[in-house]
Amino acid sequence: MSSQYLSLVSPDESSSQGDTPPNLKRNVLCNATRFTITTLAVVVIILLVAIFFLVKFPRSPSAVSCEGPCGLEEEGAKGGEMRSRETFLLGLITDIHLMVHPDDCVANRGWKYGTFGCDSTEALLNATLAAMSDKLISSNPAQNIIFMLGDAAQHQDEAAWSTNITIAAIHSVYTRLSAQFPDTPVFPTIGNNDLERHNAVPDPSWYDTILPVFESALRRGDRVELPPDFHDVFRNGGYYSAKLRSNARGEGGLTVISLNTNLLASKVIGAQPYAGTTDHLSWLERELERAVGKVAIIGHHPPTISFFALRYSVLQNHWDKEYLDAFLKIYRNYKDKIMGMFTGHEHQDSFGAMKYEGVDISVFSLPSVSPVYQGQPSFSIATVTNDYRLLDILTHHTWLDFYNRLKEEPKFLGNSSYSDILGVTGLNSTALLDKAGEIISESDRMSTFTSLRDKVYQDRFGVDITPHMFYCYSTNLQISSFRSCAQQFGYNTSNFKSEMSEDNVS
Question: Cis link prior to 21 (omega < 30° from 0)?
């Protein structure tokens, strides 16, 4: 018995005792086999448990290299959500492009929350509004407001354009906004897909069609005063002004001026010449003159160079040059009253700032809910002081393909806070211009932002935009000054085209 034991622990000694009995060999083999199988089973179980936790509880979004929401911060982690009794939150949402018939987009079939290359499904819109609601109701909900910056309606084939689909999408979007935010006023504006025809100035009767929808959105919560001429002005051209009543602390209300930028846009048929356009800018000047306190300007097309076109080596303003020049003069004269200008249309977040005749001017373009142009569905939350100074804008993105694979409702995480990216406290025009040089710096902060931006927008269009070109885009609203800026960095824009060969972002 002792020799059998020694044969297991000392091969040299066992060999000196003669051959090992066959039954012992079988026992050794069986024991070794059982050990191997048990070990493999344990390894497989560990791997299965690890895979389960990785799928169910994905790695921290701050990981440098990962599948899913890589690079996104946890909600509330950024400086953009500074919350106190001295501030309120402004929800910014745009370019929803709700599909009335989701199966019309072949790529979307089978995806509840939609997919890239298609407009928004109802499920995606509901998930977005729910996430936005979580942000807005967590801080001073009685004071918070929403700007809806246009394009509620889906993209349609030009040859088969249906006004019934457009109307159905507009009604559906604002019905859902009303259900999610029953006591929060929503300030709407008209996008280029919210028209009787795409990119075409509609018959004035069209404004009568959408007037009740817009008025109902404004009156929610009974916190907005509409001027006596509200209906007449809107019927004339689809624009309006409205006054947010004084807040609980007694500070003066905010005037919101909603422009119909379709009348000013370079690509909208019928906008040039159009009698209502001159009236529109004259009306804007009168409204700024009579406004008491701060003013927020909203519209769909930003008065900037088209970032979408730039990536195809095309230099094109969203606005007609004549109207842009007139608008900049008006903005210059009333700059001290203007809290900020907020727009959509570009389907990504960016800002434009420039010095115009000695006055600093700025505008913000917000990202889309629709993933049609390969961008991640998004909304933004601005933090505003009770005396209407814009402190910050924090964008919330989801990671659509990641959550589609999980077959779970998309979650939205906050990132891209302007205060963090540019290192500013307060988003006034002067601060933006002072810090715009950060775009071309080698700082870790800007490198992280650039990397995240490329992931969120899927590096989606044409050629890459260098930091220097992005700087020139962000600090020059006019083509002539953009060319001068680019030349300083050694870029030759003389071969850039002046028009797109296909439709602009819409």
Answer: no
DSSP 475: T
DSSP 442-465: --HHHHHHHHHHHHHTTT-SSSPP
pTM of the full structure: 0.82
Measured CA to CA, the distance from residue 381 to residue 374 in angstroms comes to: 22
Kindly give the confidence (pLDDT) of every residue in the chain, 506 residues in length, as a single tens digit, with 9 standing for 90 and above: 433 322 223 334 333 434 445 554 455 455 656 666 777 776 677 776 666 555 444 443 333 334 455 444 444 444 444 445 588 999 999 999 999 887 778 677 778 899 999 999 999 999 999 999 998 887 677 789 999 999 999 999 888 889 999 999 999 999 999 999 999 999 999 999 999 888 888 888 999 999 999 999 999 988 999 999 999 999 989 999 999 986 555 456 899 999 999 999 887 776 655 555 568 999 999 999 999 999 999 999 999 988 878 877 888 899 988 899 999 999 999 999 999 999 999 998 888 888 888 888 889 999 999 999 888 999 999 999 988 999 999 999 999 989 988 889 999 988 768 887 777 888 888 888 887 777 776 566 666 666 666 667 655 444 566 778 888 888 888 888 899 998 998 888 888 877 654 444 45
Reduced to 3 states (helix: H, G, I; strand: E, B; else coil), residue 24 is helix
Distance separating alpha carbons of residues 402 and 458, to the nearest angstrom: 13
Written as one letter, the residue type at 501 is S
Q: How far is CA 45 from CA 41, 325, 400, in A?
A: 6, 68, 30
Three-class SS of residue 263? helix
Coil vs helix vs strand at 207: helix
